[in-house]
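Priority: medium. Attachment 1 of 2:
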């Protein structure tokens, strides 16, 4: 098997990428108790965002090159959903569910932004292939993932979602997402 030592690392990376998009549970986000006592007013960045927290005031870099400052969307409900990788089974099911529920999403007055660590070219191909009606956020440096305190596994974001209310505060958090049911649960939460 000439050349197989070079092929093995590539196969391992490919397998890890596919495994990242399965319907598994997110990595633990427990805080370090020693660090928590240092400053009682400091934000614990290892702790997930919670309902009532202010949404991070960050700029989203979209697949088409445009940028949207999250705070500029105040007055609208916004879904920021994180997924591991473009065009993989669980991620495709989740995106198609949002696409298929688009009329209800629009009726609920909801803006949708999908976030993963792939580049604009990968996002564009994913949007084109599945005719997604919403933009995808380019997060190659994981800045958006970090701002939302979404854990990364081997540079892939965990599957988590955040519904931001019209007041700019987190209205609902999904730390574990069922790709098949996500669209309907988001629509119900947006209508509540």
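Attachment 2 of 2:
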């Amino acid at each position: 098997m000439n050349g197989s030592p070079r092929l093995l690392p590539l196969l391992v990376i490919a397998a890890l990428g596919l495994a990242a998009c399965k319907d598994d549970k997110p990595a633990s986000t427990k805080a370090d108790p020693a660090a928590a006592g240092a400053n009682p007013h400091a934000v614990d960045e290892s702790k997930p965002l919670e309902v009532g927290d202010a949404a991070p005031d960050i700029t989203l870099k979209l697949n088409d090159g445009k940028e949207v400052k999250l705070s500029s969307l105040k007055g609208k409900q916004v879904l920021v959903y994180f997924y591991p990788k473009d065009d993989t089974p669980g991620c495709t099911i989740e995106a198609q569910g949002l696409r298929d529920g688009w009329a209800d999403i629009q009726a609920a007055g909801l803006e949708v932004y999908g976030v993963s660590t792939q580049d604009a070219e990968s996002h564009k191909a994913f949007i084109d292939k599945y005719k997604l009606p919403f933009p995808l956020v380019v997060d190659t440096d994981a800045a958006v993932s970090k701002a939302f305190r979404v854990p990364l596994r081997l540079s892939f974001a965990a599957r988590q979602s955040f519904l931001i209310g019209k007041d700019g505060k987190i209205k609902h958090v999904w730390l574990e997402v069922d790709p098949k049911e996500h669209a309907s649960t988001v629509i119900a939460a947006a209508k509540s």
